[in-house]
Amino acid sequence: MAEKEEKERVCITGAGGYIASWVVKLLLSKGFIVHGTVREPCDGKNSHLKKLEKASENLKLFKADLLDYDGLCAAIDGCTGVFHIASPNLYPKVSNPQAEVVEPAVVGTLNILKACEKARVKKVVVVSSVAAVILNPSWPKDRPKDEECWSDPEICKAPENYYFLSKTLAESEAWKHARTSELDIVTVCPSFVFGPMLQPTLNASSYVFLTYLKGSFSVDQICVTNIYKICVLHYTLEVQFLFLTSLLYIYSLGLRFLDIRWT
């Protein structure tokens, strides 16, 4: 009798977060072994992951943060694909945004990519944000902002918009690294993401939505991405880096995906 084929292993950074939790759930349902990085595996805010279907047999949580290169290497070892989703944000408020948000996002992304190279990962999906797209006053006003548009770091710095700055610099560094690396990298730039929550804590998008409803946050337009749409996109990318569709895999290399066009 032929030996049972070993299941593919995929690592997800920041596994306890909102989008990441849904990606963990999706990958487990498709039969993958999932390695998830969290700051504290025993923390109650990550307990929902252990309750997911097939988690007891196919989910392993690793203690690591973005600045813990050795911890990231341990989590990524043996994986064929990585979803880099973890990223610091401004909720709850931080006292030193440059040190607590910008630097960990940039250095952490590079740590992930270096760990992926060491582990010979086949494909990396870096989850960026529409924040890395929309702050560009030089973009033609009659052209919707698309995957070619990038936020201007100097514009981000002016109002001290540290989250936008962190996502812009982190994704930019990922692409710079890709040009001198053999890694196959794809980036995804979602906007606000709403839908059912798997985790017990409030995520940043939901926090923004609540403050908007309370009248303490004002925007001309809130762009909404349903969580199910994000999962469909992530599953498509998952299929790509696992070579299930060679044509799709070939033409996905080096692409940046924006889930909606901004005007």
From TrEMBL:
Citing just one GO molecular function, the answer is:
oxidoreductase activity, acting on the CH-OH group of donors, NAD or NADP as acceptor
Question: Does DNA-binding appear among the keywords?
Answer: no
Looking at the record, the residues that make up the NAD-dependent epimerase/dehydratase domain are 10-200
Q: Which organism is it from?
A: Vitis rotundifolia
TM region positions = 239-258
Query: Coiled-coil segments, which residues?
Result: none
The family assignment reads:
Belongs to the NAD(P)-dependent epimerase/dehydratase family. Dihydroflavonol-4-reductase subfamily.
Per UniProt, the keywords (alphabetical) are: Membrane, NADP, Oxidoreductase, Transmembrane, Transmembrane helix
Pfam families per the UniProt record, alphabetical: Epimerase
Mind telling me which InterPro entries this protein's record contains?
A: Epimerase_deHydtase (IPR001509), NAD(P)-bd_dom_sf (IPR036291), NAD(P)_dehydrat-like (IPR050425)
User: Is Nucleotide-binding among the key words of this record?
Assistant: no
* Protein's name according to its UniProt entry: NAD-dependent epimerase/dehydratase domain-containing protein
PANTHER family from the xrefs?
A: NAD DEPENDENT EPIMERASE/DEHYDRATASE (PTHR10366), NAD-DEPENDENT EPIMERASE_DEHYDRATASE DOMAIN-CONTAINING PROTEIN (PTHR10366:SF831)
